[in-house]
Amino acid sequence: MLLLDRKQALAIAPLWRLGFRPFFLAGALFALLAVALWAAVLHGLTNLAVPSGMLAWHRHEMPFGFGLAIIAGFLLTAVQTWTGRPSLSGRPLITLFGFWLAARLAWFAPVPLPVLIILQLAFIGLFIAQMAHQLVAAKQRNNYPILLVLSLLALCQSFTLAGLAIGDGDLQRRGVLAALWLIAVMLGLIGGRVIPFFTQRGLGRVEAFAAHPWLDRLLLACGVLVAALFASGHNLQARSWLAVPFIVLSVLHGLRLWRWYLPGIWRVPLLWSLHLAYTWLLVASLGMAAWHLGWLTRPSQASHALAVGAMGGLILAMMARVSLGHTGRPLQPAGAMAWAFGLLNLGALIRVSAGGGWLGLAALCWGVAFALFAWHYAPVLCRARVDGHPG
Fold first, then answer.
1. Which structural domain, as residue segments, surrounds residue 374?
2. Which pTM value belongs to this model?
3. N- to C-terminal Cα distance for the chain?
């Protein structure tokens, strides 16, 4: 039976053998194209017609189109390791990916708004159902918080799309910002597992980093609270008392970074990229605290520190490392990837600190970073593992 399963797995085209392959590649290409299109709109180079305008499209697609694609690729791959059960591959994976792609294209197709909404929600619904099936069947209770965050993300997407349907821009904004901070929770959950592990392995450290479950639980609870405050509309106006949860988040993220830090990370691009990207979670939390205290003029600076620096940076660094590890290749990326990591962080810094006239340069840094990933990793993701494993 095992021999038969292996033959069946090897008969599947490499791109469709595990979730990280299609979703990492397509997600990187989408990140490049979507931000390039948004920059073209901002500079008046194009004027496309989409439901509720291009701002609504940009708000929705960065967390729910780009972010969720990479989350799906990572989790559909990781769940196989967690549970010891085969994850999606072959036709079921192609079907799920097809829903994601159809949802992206539907914005620019002459389809009724209800069809657009159904396609958007179908992808996240099917993805959650698959994750729940595997985690519940294996009784992986320690991973149930991931199901909670995914379910809350689906709820936020429903809010966003409801706002789109009734023309309520405030509801759209609340849904998107709540989703963005839920993605921060997901980044914290995943980063809290892999960054210390990758750091230990990458530097040949024998002793593992000490686990602190209380810190992880507090980060989860505080992050969900912050997202709920965005969804309810409380975080849309500056109030000094609302700085408190963001200060707590800042302290907790700072503790993690301090615990994980080893000077040797700066010799390894696959490590310093992860640590630097995680630092943007701290910066975003501090930025929101500063805005609520009246020390920062625009909350969008904190939102883009989270979206560009933390989400974009951790996604790029994670994809670069996971793609090599799960294809049996040495953990030595192309030299150009160090430039990609640097450009991504430079783009985040420009987007957060510079004025509107610099948005094009920030978008260029982002685009080149993901273009470098796509160029160097497309062959890796589309080819079989080098060790002959059917993954």
1. 2-382
2. 0.96
3. 17
Residue 391 lies in a domain: no
Per-residue pLDDT of 338-352, as tens digits, reads 999 999 999 999 999
Model confidence pLDDT, tens digit, residues 141-192: 999 999 999 999 999 999 999 999 999 999 999 999 999 999 999 999 999 9
Q: Is residue 263 part of a domain?
A: yes
CATH number for the domain including 172? 1.20.210.10
Within a domain: residue 389?
A: no
Q: How many domains does the chain have?
A: 1
296 by DSSP, 3-state: which? Answer: coil
Is the CB of residue 134 less than 8 Å from the CB of residue 92?
no
Q: How many CB atoms lie within 10 A of CB 371?
A: 17
Rounded to whole angstroms, the Cα distance separating 189 from 66 reads 19
Given CA atoms 162, 167, 168, 173 in this order, what sign does their dihedral have?
Answer: positive
The crossing angle, in degrees rounded to 10, of helices 169-202 and 144-166 is 150
Residue 345's alpha-carbon distances to 90, 272, 327, 333, in angstroms, are 36, 11, 27, 18
Locate 159 and state its tokens. Answer: 């809010």
Measured CA to CA, the distance from residue 355 to residue 360 in angstroms comes to: 11
Judge whether 390 lies within some domain: no
DSSP annotation string for 190-238: HHHHHHHHHHHHHTT-SSPPPP-HHHHHHHHHHHHHHHHHHHHTGGGS-
Tell me which residue of 36, 24, 111, 113 sits closest to 69, measured CA to CA.
24
